[in-house]
Amino acid sequence: MTGKSVWVASFAAVLLIAIVLLSAGSPSVKANDQPSAPNAEVKIDNFSFGPQTLTVPVGATVTWTNRDDIPHTVVSTDGVFKSKVRDTDETFSYTFTKAGTYPYFCSIHPKMTGQVMVKQAQSCGLHCNGYGFPFVAAAVLSQGGCCPKRHNQNGALNPIRSQGSGWR
Amino acid sequence: MPDKKQDLIDQTLQNLNNDGVDRRGFLKCMAWAGTGLVWTMSGGIPMSRAFAKTADQSAGKGGDFSFVQISDSHVGFNKPANPDVTATLQTAINKINAMSHKPDFIIHTGDLSQLSKPSEFDTLDQALKGASAKQIYFVPGEHDMLNDNGEQYLQRYGRGTKGTGWYSFDQKGVHFVGLVNVANLKAGGMGSLGHEQLEWLEDDLKGRSASTPIVLFAHIPLWTIYPEWGWGTDDSEQALSYVKRFGSVTVLNGHIHQIMQKIEGKVSFHTAMSTAFPQPAPGTAPSAGPMKVPADQLQQVLGITDVNYVVSGRSLAIVDSPLGA
To answer: Which of A52, A154, A166, B116 has its CA 20 to 30 A from that of B145?
Structure first.
């Protein structure tokens, strides 16, 4: 094999590994506030929202289902969303396109409160730039599919860690 | 009222009942048994008489009158706690019509409908057409304000009212005030009257003689019964401060689907049974929702309230009776 073809082969191999790992699905590293599935559910029962605090990633759709024998509503305290009245087994869905905390309540029974916490999804794959593909592969491998931002919010360099936590 | 006179009244009351039951216990027993025992105040001395006898004697006697409070008809509800709320509503109306004295009017303290649907309001109106009393006064419950901030309720029942549906009227010297504490509810809060309504109330009561009997009626209780379930009104203290100077104040509420009563000085508080379904006593269930009882007991936990006013009296006599009695 020539030097050039060796280079092409290893480039292709690394690229293939990176593609496979990036398409593997959700990261295996899970911190406490790691966003869960893109479609999440809240059950309304016994005059309460369950879970009372739900954490989802940006772009997730949350569906509330009324399992109580009395109608309820889902109303954002900041006027972001407002359901019509939902009787037993009726649902209301809302897709969260912006990160933030969204407290809400039932306008019929205002003691019923809950909140949805919407988190920015972690940056992955191609955001790890400037180090060349071999480095990307190593970083991707060590993070279980999601690689860390090289710079933190203040612009300083982050050390490469093998355990992902606190990086956004 | 001077304390000495109040003491005499309390003493007399206690002496009236040789079984040792005091006034609070008497009220509790009356509500529990639904016996329809009426006690009225005549010349400042309380007297208790059997319901039927009193009705014949006092009804229509120059200036005396009576009215009926019904509440929480929830037309449209169809779950196991009561699959046919229209039928029990009809039973309540039949009971009103069967009373030996015809009430001057009916007060409905809210939750007329279950889901604020036009068909539900229609059904209620149709049923009430058959009541012996043609004048009906309403205040909305939270179930009547769904989807449209109470627009439909106001169109149907809000003629002559202000804001979210509050108003007052006079009947034979008694001043009635209908209040709305189910609009613009805040997250984590209970019932709410709001600044505008409170200002109106203060103004409405201004200049009235302190001897004018006052009746306030609103859906959610105007005193704090159980905040965990929202059974109270956040700003009712201010409203009650406006009626403090009056000699006789009666507060009629609904919302909790059971009878609760409290007397504090010259103010009597009373909540009515529902004509649709009962709810659990505070803290006795995971939540305040409809409570299923055995079918043969349903008529015992739903009911109407007959209120009698005697001109010479100081307060209104409130009598609850279950549908099945």
So the answer is: A52
Residue A162 is assigned to a structural domain of this protein: yes
* pLDDT single digits (tens) B313-323: 656 888 899 99
Asked whether the beta carbons of residue B229 and residue A111 sit closer than 8 angstroms, the reply is yes
Distance (Å) from the C-alpha of residue A52 to the closest C-alpha of chain B?
Answer: 13
The boundaries of the domain holding residue A25 are: 9-35+122-168
pLDDT in tens, B17-39: 444 445 555 555 444 333 333 33
Is A124 buried (19+), middle (13-18) or exposed (0-12) by CB count in 10 A?
middle
ipTM summary value: 0.77
Confidence of residue B165 (pLDDT cuts 50, 70, 90): very high
pLDDT at site A160: 54
The residue type at A164: G
Distance of CA B87 to the CA centre of its chain: 21
- Determine the Cα–Cα distance for residues B269 and B239; give it in Å rounded to an integer: 14
- Is the pLDDT confidence value at A17 over 70? no
Q: Specify the CATH number for the domain of residue A80.
A: 2.60.40.420
Q: Does this model's pTM top 0.90?
A: no
* All structural domains of chain B: 65-322 (3.60.21.10)
| Partner-chain residue, chosen from A46, A69, A113, that has the shortest CB–CB distance to B187 | A113
**A53 and A73 belong to one structural domain:** yes
**Interface contact flag, B189 A110, Cβ < 8 Å:** yes
Are residues A105 and B115, on separate chains, in Cβ contact within 8 Å?
Answer: no
Model pLDDT for residues A37-83, shown as the tens digit of each residue: 567 999 999 999 999 999 999 999 999 999 999 999 999 999 999 99
Q: How far is B293 from chain A (nearest CA, A)?
A: 15
Q: How many helices (H) and strands (E) does chain A have?
A: 2, 8
In B, which residues are within 8 Å of A75 by CB distance?
187
**A44 neighbourhood in chain B, CB within 8 Å:** none
Our CA-based measurement puts residue A114 at a distance from the nearest CA of chain B, in whole angstroms, of 10
Nearest by CB to residue A70, choosing from B187, B230, B290, is B290
Same domain, A78 and A91: yes
- Give the pair of three-digit tokens for residue B48: 């208790």
| CA–CA gap between residue B111 and residue B141 (Å, rounded) | 4
Residues A109 and A50 in one domain: yes
